Structures are given as C-alpha cells and as structure tokens.
Amino acid sequence: MTVRPYAVRISVRLSGGVNDPQGNTVRDALRSLGHEDVREVRVGKVIDLVVDAGSADEARARADRMCRELLANPVIETHLVEQVEEA
Description:
32% of the residues lie in helices and 34% in strands. The protein has helices at 21-32, 56-71; strands spanning 4-14, 45-53, 77-86. The protein starts with a strand and ends with a strand. A three-stranded antiparallel sheet has the order 2-1-3, with helices on one face. The mean pLDDT is 97. The protein is built from two helices and three strands. The radius of gyration is 17 Å and the shape is elongated. By secondary structure, the protein is an alpha+beta fold. The longest helix is centred in the C-terminal third of the chain and has 16 residues, at 56-71.
C-alpha cells in the first residue's frame, strides 16, 4: 500500500448546554462595539494536521481516534473531522 500525506481539518466545539465563558466575553465585546444584534457566540478550535496514511478513509479514522484520545474532551466537547485531502 502506498502511503501519502493527507491534510486533515478537525473542528472541536463545546457540547450544547455547556457554558462558554469565552463565547460570552466575545458576545459582550461585539455588543459593546455596536453589534447589539449578536445573540449568542460559541467559541471552538480548529486543528489542522498532516498525517501519513494509505487512504483518505484511513486518515479520517486516525484523526477521529486522535480526537477521542487527546484532541477533544468527550465529556464537554464534540469533534468533527471536516476535511481530508491529499497534502
């Protein structure tokens, strides 16, 4: 099997119902700048990595495993492997 580098983009967000103090701070700052119409802000993180794998499916599966093992806290966060393409 040929191994190729795959660029993977992962989004990690707080689960619904989990308080987001950073999001609240950003919402309040936006409102103070005149954006009173902003009702809610949720802040997450994007993780970009390049992984060597035999296929896009394998790269996606490995990224999902990395999220479950380290990159996302399953108690309060959800993750989504958004993009997998050859690097």
